[in-house]
Design a protein that fits this description.
Layout: H1 41-51, E1 55-59, E2 65-70, H2 71-79, E3 96-98, H3 107-113, E4 115-119, E5 125-130, H4 131-162, H5 165-170, H6 189-196, H7 199-203, H8 211-229, H9 238-256
Parallel strand pairs: 3-4
Antiparallel strand pairs: 1-2, 4-5
């Protein structure tokens, strides 16, 4: 694409690389604490305890990794009576991955070994990604989808219990003449809103909460849903995630107190 001045314009930086790489995780660019091969056992253990680490790289420079100490490597040696006093006697072979590797290529390694070291383009170790980092990342990636699924299932449940197929059909987008609506599953999220924004239909829900306020929340969720389904590489803002959490909790409370049960 060219600008008005005829200059070539590259793709948006957010979409320049569609691959979700391990470098997208903050921990992959956070230089890990390490010890030298001659570090005393007491010092290494103190670092692990005070920082709540399960792994500790053993390194002689930013590029040269000799191994890694883990609680398993310490415990297994002490359990068989080995007289270990320094890091080199406690370490195991380390595992690493390049910073430009796809995120999903690291999952198997981390699942089996609980960590992986990340090596950058300059050959230096740039970070360490652990099972905790992986869990947090999956939560951040999956939570919006799971919340939207829960919200939609709550809404479908309410609508399916109170509206006939003919009423559901009447909520369909008028321009979509070829689509047949026989159940609530055939409606889009926007059509849920069209169905419920009518006062007479809203009254059929027999819910003593304010329609206008609820419809405003429905509309906010619809906009967030569109953003999520467009797979923005940067994810959704925290305020939007809080909106989804709050609305899901609201629907949970209604179900809990049997407000939306027949």
């Amino acid at each position: 694409m060219k600008s008005e001045k005829g200059e070539e314009k590259g793709p948006s930086s957010a979409y320049a690389d569609p691959i979700y790489r391990i470098s997208r995780l903050a921990s992959s660019a956070r230089k890990p604490l390490s010890v030298s091969p001659d570090t005393k056992l007491e010092e290494a253990v103190t670092h692990m305890l005070t920082n709540d680490f399960s792994q500790l790289p053993v390194m002689t420079s930013g590029r040269d990794v000799k191994g890694v100490i883990t609680w398993a490597s310490i415990g297994s040696r002490l359990a068989v009576g080995k007289n270990c006093s320094v890091a080199r006697e406690l370490m195991e072979q380390h595992l690493e991955i390049r910073s430009d590797a796809p995120f999903f290529s690291a999952i198997g390694i981390i699942a089996e070994h609980q960590y992986v070291l990340v090596r950058g383009h300059d050959q230096k170790i740039t970070g360490i990604v652990t099972a905790s980092d992986l869990s947090l990342q999956f939560q951040q990636l999956a939570e919006p989808f799971l919340l939207l699924g829960e919200i939609e299932n709550h809404v479908r449940r309410v609508i399916s219990q109170r509206f006939s197929p003919a009423e559901l059909e009447s909520a369909k987008d008028p321009s979509d003449t070829k689509r047949v609506v026989t159940s609530v599953a055939d409606l889009t999220y926007g059509e849920y809103i069209r169905l419920l924004e009518n006062q007479e239909r809203w009254d059929k829900l027999n819910i003593t909460v304010d329609r206008k306020t609820c419809m405003g929340k429905f509309e906010s969720v619809r906009k967030i849903r569109n953003d999520v389904m467009h797979f923005d590489p940067d994810g959704i803002p925290e305020k939007d995630l809080m909106t989804l959490r709050d609305f899901a909790r609201f629907l949970q409370r209604l179900q809990l107190i049997d407000v939306i049960n027949v």
